[in-house]
């Protein structure tokens, strides 16, 4: 985790599929701020419907379908991270911003006083 790095820039109004792979030997509960998502490619009825956190077993890949509909601010990042406190404390997280069409993130250091 680098508080001054934006890992992803997402354009508002877009639908994206994020492929999240757990290459570690530990379980992770992957969480995304700002949006809910649908877990693709699963027969597990408990994974139907909209989610904001999903369990990812070691060496498992999950494809997540999410739509970014609002809250654009190129200087205000959202987080994605493992929801296990021990993993968060170890820096297992990243940041993304949602921007208007044709825009990019603000080149200055992110302002972390807003959403989360």
From TrEMBL:
Plastocyanin-like domain location: 2-99
InterPro entries found in the cross-reference section: Cu-oxidase_C, Cu-oxidase_fam, Cu_oxidase_Cu_BS, Cupredoxin
Keywords: Metal-binding
Transmembrane feature ranges: none
Metal-binding as UniProt keyword: yes
SUPFAM superfamilies per record: Cupredoxins
Coiled coil: none
Family statement: Belongs to the multicopper oxidase family.
Protein's recorded name: Multicopper oxidase domain-containing protein
Organism taxonomic ancestry: Bacteria, Bacillati, Actinomycetota, Actinomycetes, Mycobacteriales
């Amino acid at each position: 985790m680098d508080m001054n790095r934006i890992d992803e820039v997402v354009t508002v109004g877009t639908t994206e599929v994020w492929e999240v792979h757990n290459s570690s030997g530990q379980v992770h509960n992957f969480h995304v701020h700002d949006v809910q998502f649908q877990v693709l490619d699963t027969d597990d009825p408990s994974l139907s419907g909209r989610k904001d956190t999903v369990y990812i077993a070691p060496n498992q890949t999950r494809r997540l379908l999410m739509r970014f509909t609002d809250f654009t601010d190129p200087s205000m990042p959202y987080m994605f991270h493992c929801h296990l406190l021990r993993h968060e404390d170890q820096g297992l997280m990243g940041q993304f911003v949602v921007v208007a069409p044709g825009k990019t993130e603000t080149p200055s250091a992110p302002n972390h006083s807003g959403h989360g």
